[in-house]
Structure formats: C-alpha cells, structure tokens
Write a structure and sequence with these properties.
Layout: E1 5-6, H1 20-29, E2 34-37, H2 46-56, E3 59-72, E4 80-89, H3 96-128, H4 136-143, H5 150-159, H6 166-174, H7 189-198, E5 202-205, H8 217-224, E6 228-233, H9 238-250, E7 254-258, H10 279-296
The structure holds adenosine monophosphate (AMP), zinc ion and fe (iii) ion (FE) (2 copies).
Zinc ion binds at residues 10, 15, 40, 262.
Length: 297
C-alpha cells in the first residue's frame, strides 16, 4: 500500500510521461491525499494538475524543480560548479521574474540539446559509420510541448536501436562526464533561492545525497534562504534517511520528500507514494510557504 504524501513528481510538461490529468488519476489510484508537482524548469502543468486534483479531492501543492549550480572549488583558477536541483513549493505561477527566468532556461535547454544530439551523432558515426543518426526534429517531437531534457534524447536513441535502455544511454552517452554530455549554463543556486522566495515559494533542496558532503553546503544555502530539504526520496535506504533527517534537524530545515515519479516510461521504479513523507512535514512546509508569502507581499 503506498504512503499518502508525494511531493516530488513530473508530468509531460517536462520529462515525465503522464499528462496532468493522468498524473492526478494515478495519484488517486495510489490513494494519495497530498500531491506536489515539481516539473523541471516549468510551471506549465500546474493549473491543470491543480484543477484535476481539486476534482478528485486530492490536496495539491504547486512546485517546480529548477536546475541550478553552485560554485565549488578551491581557487579562482579552478572554478568548478556542482549541479544542484532546487525545488520551489507554493510559487506564484504568474510571477514575472520567475516566469521570465524559466523561459530563458527553456531556451538554454534547447541549445544544449542541439549540442548533445550533435555529440551523440559523432559517437555513433565513429562506432558504426552511420551519419546523422539522430535528428533534432525527432527529439523535439518526443519532448512535445514540454521542457526538453536528456530523457527525451534517451528515448530517441533507444527507438533507433543505438541503446538498449535509459540506463544504457546515460552510461554510454549522456550521463555526467560521458562523451555526449553537455553541461548546462550556470544558473546560480543562491540567486534562484532568492527568486523562488520573491515568487512566494519555499526553496527546498532536492535529493541531497547527490552533492557529496553537506557540512559546508547546507549552512551556505540556509543563509541564502533555503527552508527545507528532501529526506524521504526515491529509493534512499533507512540509513540515508536517518542521516538526512538528523542534518535537517541540525540546520533547522523542513524535511520533505517524494518519489520523483516520472510516469511509467522514465524511471519506472519510482512509484507514487513510495516514500513515507509524514503529514507533519506537509504542515511545516505549508507554514513555511505562508511565512514567505507574507514577506513577499
Ligand atoms: P536534464 O534536465 O536534461 O539534465 O536531464 C535530467 C533528467 O535526466 C533527470 O531528471 C532524470 O529524469 C534523468 N536522469 C539523469 N541521470 C540519469 C541516469 N543516470 N539514469 C536515468 N535517468 C537519468
Ligand atoms: Zn526528470
Ligand atoms: Fe532532480
Ligand atoms: Fe525530479
């Protein structure tokens, strides 16, 4: 039996496979009482998902998952950036600066996708002699209206027979550090925390087990205005959850979480309600959103 709260999900407005109506129906079928939507760099699915959830009697928390990065590294001469996914809950989807920034991210995503397609084609040509194996128009077609991302390119590679699975694609082509991977333009985590707050949203750190040691990072982000971090995420085991929960307490951050559900075709192991996010965490998140909105007004 799934747990009743899931605060980290995607639709086909980004790289999930469910439409807003399908996501809400899947949430009902899983028995969810609270659903948070966190598409990558877009708020386009929020209105429709909210309406479907209202119809089905599911409490809905609007959100977004913004791809950002923070500067790490020792000296001016070795600038390197750590990619960080920042969640923003309760954002006002009509906030001009937020909408404009997300639109410019969408443009940057398209440019980056063109570069990754080109590199994939170079790898394929080198390995098989076949030229222009993947067409940009096919990848755009797969992405539909949504914010374009690597899973869309992965599908194109799989359907053309150049890879056997999503994992295979990331392992051989577009995972971080692989030959066809292209970094995203830097979008500063600290600046995005401010932007989310100004849009009345509560900034929360997504899947924090991916960023190495958190001892330095959490105080920096907390000072910048971070209010929460994910603790119950995807397949995190008990030891990880307990360690993150202690860190959240230590740094006075609201513990949140969710499955990172993308529908059946991307990350099929992530099912709605797979993580035991407590209702107290929803209450604390909503209080944080309320406080930030009062400040933004
Ligand atoms: P992008 O936003 O284009 O950088 O793509 C990021 C998305 O790709 C993530 O949200 C996941 O859905 C997916 N992804 C990233 N790394 C992997 C991986 N190693 N295996 C499968 N999917 C991945
Ligand atoms: Zn995704
Ligand atoms: Fe993420
Ligand atoms: Fe996600």
């Amino acid at each position: 039996m799934p747990f009743p709260v899931d605060l980290h999900t995607h639709t086909n407005a980004s790289d999930g496979s469910d439409s807003p109506a399908e996501l809400a129906a899947a949430a009902r079928d899983a028995g969810l009482s609270v659903l948070g939507l966190t598409d990558h760099d877009t708020v386009d699915a929020i209105a429709e998902t909210a309406e479907e959830c209202r119809r089905l009697g599911i409490a809905f928390i609007p959100g977004v998952e913004i791809s950002t990065s923070i500067r790490v590294g020792e000296s001016e001469n070795t600038p390197s950036r750590l990619p960080i996914h920042l969640l923003g809950y309760g954002i006002d989807t009509s906030n001009g600066p937020l909408v404009d920034t997300l639109a410019s991210h969408a443009r940057a995503r398209s440019v980056r996708m063109g570069q990754m397609i080109e590199r994939c084609n170079q790898v394929i040509e080198r390995d098989t002699g076949r030229r222009e194996a993947i067409s940009a128009s096919r990848v755009l077609d797969i992405a539909g209206k949504g914010s374009i991302g690597r899973p869309h390119l992965a599908k194109a590679l799989i359907e053309s027979g150049y890879a056997t699975s999503i994992d295979d694609v990331f392992e051989r082509y577009i995972g971080r550090g692989k030959p066809a991977y292209v970094k995203r333009a830097p979008v500063d985590t600290v600046e995005m925390i401010t932007l989310v707050r100004e849009a009345g949203g509560a900034p929360v750190l997504a899947h924090p087990d991916e960023y190495g040691t958190l001892d330095h990072l959490l105080p920096v982000l907390r000072r910048a205005g971070l209010v929460g971090m994910e603790v119950w995420y995807g397949e995190y085991d008990d030891a990880t959850v307990n360690r993150l929960l202690r860190l959240a307490e230590q740094h006075d951050l609201v513990p949140t979480g969710g499955s990172d559900y993308h529908g059946r075709s991307v990350k099929p192991s992530r099912t709605l309600g797979m993580t035991p996010v407590p209702l107290t965490s929803v209450v604390a998140l909503e209080a944080a959103i309320e406080a930030i909105r009062a400040e933004a007004r």
